[in-house]
Amino acid sequence: MYGTLLLLHILAATKWTGGHIVLSVVILPKVLKHRSPEELLSFESVYEKIGMPALIIQILTGLYLAYHMLPDITQWFNPTNPVSHTIMAKLCLLLLTLSFAVHARFRVIPHLSPDTLKVMVWHIIPVTILSILFVVVGVSFRTGWLY
């Protein structure tokens, strides 16, 4: 069970992070060049069908994997426990990601226009960086980088 959930977690992370890298490096420059919110919304509508399920899978499997490592949930927030450092880092990254996503969904996207594209850029780039940091923190479970 653990191995299967870890695999699902990694596959979902691949979809989530890869999609955001493609968005930032390939799609976003075209959108900005053409000042076309339609191009961005077109990509978002397609990507959302695999990106959001990937994020949900990551959250659910991530919580299980954290519980597997530290079954006492109060220990997840104990700074003297080295394993909790990575769990707290992942939870902080998740909170930041969700904050950007909710703000974009309800405040930015409804008013998206050629004039407000840069506001969306200030959401896409940080979420892409956060997604890469998720991977780095995930690797640190095995490497001990945050212990």
Structural overview:
The protein has 147 residues and is mainly α. It has one domain (2-143). 82% of the residues lie in helices and 0% in strands. It contains 4 helices and no strands. It has helices at residues 2-34, 37-69, 82-108, 117-143. The mean pLDDT is 95.
Brief synopsis:
This protein is mainly alpha-helical and 147 residues long. The chain is 82% helix and 0% strand. It has one domain.
Order of helical and strand elements: HHHH
The parts where pLDDT drops under 50 for at least 5 residues are: none
Structural class of the secondary structure composition? mainly alpha
Which term fits the overall shape?
elongated
Domain count: 1
Residue-averaged pLDDT? 95
Please state the CA-atom Rg, rounded to the nearest Å.
17 Å
Strand content: under 5%
The helix content, as a percent range, equals: over 70%
Number of DSSP strand runs? 0
Helix-strand layout with pairing:
Layout: H1 2-34, H2 37-69, H3 82-108, H4 117-143
Helix pairs in contact: 1-2, 1-4, 3-4
Tag the structure with descriptive keywords.
147 residues, mainly alpha, 0% strand
